[in-house]
Fold this sequence. Notes:
The radius of gyration is 19 Å and the shape is elongated. The relative contact order is 0.12. Strands 1-4-5-10-6-7-8-9 form an eight-stranded mixed beta sheet. The protein has a two-stranded antiparallel sheet with strand order 2-3. It folds into two domains: 3-70, 434 Repressor (Amino-terminal Domain) (Orthogonal Bundle); 92-216, Ribbon (Umud Fragment, subunit A). Helices cover 31% and strands 22% of the residues. It has 220 residues and is of the alpha+beta class. The protein has helices spanning 3-13, 18-25, 29-37, 47-57, 61-66, 74-89, 98-104; strands spanning 92-94, 109-110, 113-114, 125-128, 149-153, 165-170, 176-184, 187-191, 200-201, 206-216.
Amino acid sequence: MSFSDRLIHSRKKLGYTQQDVADLISVSRPAVNLWEKSQDDEVFPRAKTLDKLAKALKVDVVWLRFGYVYNNKPQDDILTKEIKLLVSTSPTLLLHEVRPWLEKHKNILKKGALMTDSEIKETEFCVTVENDAMMNASDIENSLAMGEILKIDPTFQGGLKSGDLVLAQFGMTDNFKPRLYFKDGSEEVLVALNKKFPNIPVDENIRIIGKVTHSIRKKS
């Protein structure tokens, strides 16, 4: 069941039309239609709109976006709240949207890292994994799946250490990828779990945007 399927199911269960939903969350009907027509599970509202949509449809925002909810256990309740907070309060970007977002917030760029600014209370943001560069058939548990959401801390709080998962920019393009960071003496390299991707030395063509602090794996 994709995001569009869950949206259609929830809307029809309440007897709403696409226009009804659009009016409830202050978007256009074509926007709702686009979300419902998409079957690749990669077209969905921005975080704040997604939260409004879930409330309008009287469903859990995590279920609407990812298709699952956690069991009603104390530790799961805490995790669910963290996920809701992550999805609702941080901008969630596709990887090709990262560079425009960084350029828009260039007033808080410093030495390749975002620094806290008085005008921006929250510098962390989320990205959606769009390729299989971190997938490894022999190590699925530690791989990143397409559609997984990563929360990025661009202030590098606590600094970087070997084994940290980071978001890196390859050249001055929209080529952003999650990679494992390793440092051996003065040498720094980026490693993908998928062995068909070579290790990449960190040089002037590589820019580490931030390190991953949370990961939400999309489940069916």
